[in-house]
Give the backbone structure.
Amino acid sequence: MIVITFNTVISKKLYVQIYEQILSGIQSGIFQVGDKLPSERELCIHFGVSRAPVRQALSVLEMNGFISSRQGDGVFVKDTQAAVIKNVLETVVESVSPEDILEARLVIEPLIVKFAALRATDEDIEDLNKIVREMEIETQQGIYAPETDEELHHGIAKASHNELFIAFMSSIGKAMKQQKIWTFLRDRSVTHPDYRETNFNEHKQIIEAIASRNEKEAVKKMTLHMQELQHRYWKE
């Protein structure tokens, strides 16, 4: 069993501190590729926190390509080459325009969803359906949460079981958080009441196609979603 000493964290941004300590353990070699991390319960005890910040930290580590979760088995360290690729992509994506990002997404995301429809496991589909249900509740409450939208697109990439696709979507998500123009673009498009329900329905149809293992329909729905998104963002 791996023995590692974690420091109790202070209250400010708990999940960030937990993320940094676990990542340090991975990068220093304390946790090797294929090693199983301590359970959520054990991490809570080590860090002196509740499960919420531990789960947040693990979620970010997984989105960044450092770990993978296996239902009923635990969380394991992944090959960090994927994380290196992601860091390179982030460096490139940070400097490109929103127009270029949308153009790239229009080409790449239909390809990602094709492989998701072909390769998604039952667990992947269950996870995607959970996110869609969360998005539906938010839509009914008159809310558009970009975090939920990003989580769904990342979940689709994860279901493709292609590390480069996953790294691409994570990099896009980070760029869209950092570039303030995206807030303006969202305010005039997906957050607007006229588009909020349409946006949800487009996502729901994409996930239904994946769940049906219908790659042609999934590609069709994702292409339509990307085209409509491009139109909404750049409408006069």
About this structure: The radius of gyration is 18 Å. The chain has a mean pLDDT of 84. The first strand starts at residue 67 and ends at 70.
